[in-house]
Design a protein that fits this description.
By secondary structure, the chain is of the alpha+beta class. It is built from two helices and four strands, in the order E-E-H-H-E-E. The longest helix has 11 residues.
């Protein structure tokens, strides 16, 4: 959902018992009223549908399930028209 040629920033942090990964874009962002539905199966934000971007609404749902099945957490911060940052943590194997 980021325009072609735009920058995407990926960071990995060692949090001790877990790794924290963040992915930040400068895309369309997610409307505040739709954030609670972000990780639901088949959900697509109205602005993504309106701009006719491709997608099935399964990517974040699948990502959440994979991360949770590995005892991690996933969440997002977003502001409409300013982009989104997605975060997830995964335990570090010892």
């Amino acid at each position: 959902y980021t325009p072609s040629g735009s920058r995407i920033e990926v960071k990995i942090e060692n949090m001790g018992a877990a790794a924290k990964i963040s992915i930040k874009d400068g895309g369309m962002g997610i409307p505040e009223s739709q954030k609670p539905y972000l990780f639901q199966k088949f959900f697509r934000a109205d602005n993504a549908v309106r701009l006719q971007t491709e997608g099935s609404g399964l990517g974040l749902f699948i990502a959440r399930n994979i991360i949770q099945n590995h005892k991690g957490k996933i969440w997002a911060e977003s502001e409409e028209n300013k982009g989104s940052t997605f975060y997830f943590t995964l335990p570090i194997a010892k």
